[in-house]
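Render this sequence as a predicted structure.
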Amino acid sequence: MTRTPTFKDLMKHPVLFLGFGLGSGLSSKAPGTVGTLFGGLIFLPLMLWSQEIAWALTIVGLLLGSRICGQSADWSGVHDHGGIVWDEFVAMWLVLLCLPEQNWQYWLLAFVTFRFFDIVKPWPISWADRKVAGGLGIMLDDIIAACYSIIIIWAVFRLFA
């Protein structure tokens, strides 16, 4: 049985609340994009205030991500329900932390490149999306997309800096 939670469900289940991006994954249109944008926007003030705390949150988010995404998928009855956006949150945080400079132009480039790779899924992102099961699979394709984004952003920086 496939289920999509309501906001009331999210309030009852903390793991779903995180898995569905504090509610951003409930968007009826483009939940992955909405989740990425929301995750990035709530992370920016923390990152600008303390890089150390931002890194700690990202590492904890990575370590708990497989469980959060896996339990959210189990609850919904879908391996990678479109509304599960914790993976987008953490991947976007990783990209933001690895930018060569912290300014709105790089933040925009981080968002665009990450969404591109997350949607298009070139190899090995597509392989991870198809072949790696459970919460790890949900997280892994987005982490690879984040790595691709970081590489492209740094290449752009090196070319134009």
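Summary. The radius of gyration is 15 Å. Helices lie at 7-12, 14-19, 31-49, 51-76, 86-97, 104-120, 125-131, 134-160.
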